[in-house]
Amino acid sequence: MPADQAEQLHTDAATKRPGGRTARTAKAVLDATIAELGDVGYAALRIESVAERAGVNRATIYRRWGDKPSLVAAAFTARQVETSPPTDTGDLLEDLLSFLREVRRGFDSPWIAALIRETGPGTADNAGLREALDKIWPARFRLSREIFVRAVERGDLPAHADPDELVEAAAGPLYFRRLMLGRPLTDDFLRRTAALVIAGARHAGDERS
Amino acid sequence: MPADQAEQLHTDAATKRPGGRTARTAKAVLDATIAELGDVGYAALRIESVAERAGVNRATIYRRWGDKPSLVAAAFTARQVETSPPTDTGDLLEDLLSFLREVRRGFDSPWIAALIRETGPGTADNAGLREALDKIWPARFRLSREIFVRAVERGDLPAHADPDELVEAAAGPLYFRRLMLGRPLTDDFLRRTAALVIAGARHAGDERS
């Protein structure tokens, strides 16, 4: 974007701000990016609209984030950092239910909705975004696997239980029901899913197959 | 679309065909619809392009299917009908593995890829398509639930096992891993998923919770 880089030289003076404001500007831009993603999706997202929404100069965005994939990746990553580790109640079922309720809440949060919308077959042709998403999903679920790691340590699950697969086994049905079937995620469904995964983790392997 | 309805009066003579050709024309149009969906997605799909691809007059499409949501719903429904019932080997694990392998194959077939692409948050604003998809997904999985119905009848699963939930528990992790994590679906992963779901279905409920 040489045109924008040229423009940026003219606007540097106007956008320079003292320390605290830089962080606030960054937050405003990343929040606006998530909001725009939710409204129009990645393909239609324009840096111009993000700039307007955040109340900053377009050149400020280009200077700091470079291009659209990098800006979107930065916005997702910033939200990622805000994700809290899973609850540790000492009880596997309660911990897992707490995780599944957080997954359920995620479907109603703009940034997760935007993330889901841009993940999958639709973005396969966008290498930059693809690469960013490839880092974000695993990071998001690395935190959650601790639920199962702790359960194995307590002797609550057999040692051969695979924490990553159990995260997928527990979260997968929620994504499937919500996104593919368009059905609501009731608390009863969450409980039954958690109970099935825990029973499966305890007994898979000790079965006639 | 009154303009098209007017046009259609002029082209009726040109598009009228004997019996067998009508079915072939319908197939050509529905195949072209799936192909276009795969190439450009629902939002950008144009009846004009479908008509060109199928080698038929645009008016033929409007006359028979009415509008874009109806055409797309018809295309999906036609493929739906072609879906075969699940294998009946008499063995739950083998039946379930066979189903999961079909799910895996689906990700590589254009019509399922198109269906997935149009399902989810992106199409929430398109009531006509939404309604069609709401019928197609449940129909697709109604066939698969028979695997678990038969297992309950054979006494291979407890009577309280819920066939619909077990379909979601088994298929969900595949969708999650493939679409959200972008990871490959190995045969080993399918086996472990099937074993976990079967063990869970046998033991959920007879557990300390």
From TrEMBL, chains A, B:
Pfam families on file: TetR_C_11 (PF16859), TetR_N (PF00440)
Domain HTH tetR-type: 23-83
Keyword Chaperone: no
Chain residues forming the annotated DNA-binding region: 46-65
The entry's keywords: DNA-binding, Transcription, Transcription regulation
InterPro entries documented for this protein: Homeodomain-like_sf, HTH-type_TetR-like_transc_reg, HTH_TetR, Tet_transcr_reg_TetR-rel_C_sf, TetR_C
Domain of life: Bacteria
UniProt key word Transcription regulation: yes
Spans annotated as Disordered: 1-22
Name of protein: AcrR family transcriptional regulator
